[in-house]
Specification:
alpha+beta, Gyrase A, domain 2, four-stranded antiparallel beta sheet, 2 helices
């Protein structure tokens, strides 16, 4: 679920491991490039954080909303990854 606050849309995803988080981040690249709109993304073991904001506009715009909707579709299409072998 996206949360709008402080002039941005944010979403945090929980993942079972680092590799799953990396795969989600990797899947976010193509839609961002296609939209020519690039989010702030951070990730690590068990999480991915996405922040969308149109800096020139000083906040959330239709461009952010469209990319967040595209990301929802990407995320929905990802199958849960198996935890990496230890």
């Amino acid at each position: 679920m996206w949360i709008e606050s402080d002039g941005a849309l944010t979403r945090e995803l929980k993942t079972p491991d680092f590799l799953s988080a990396f795969r989600i981040v990797e899947a976010l690249v193509a839609p961002a490039e296609a939209a020519e709109h690039h989010p702030d993304v951070s990730f690590g073991w068990g999480y991915v954080r996405i922040r969308l904001s149109t800096h020139e506009a000083g906040g959330v715009t239709e461009k952010d909303r469209k990319l967040s909707a595209a990301y929802d579709e990407v995320i929905k299409g990802l199958s849960p990854a198996k935890p990496a072998a230890r």
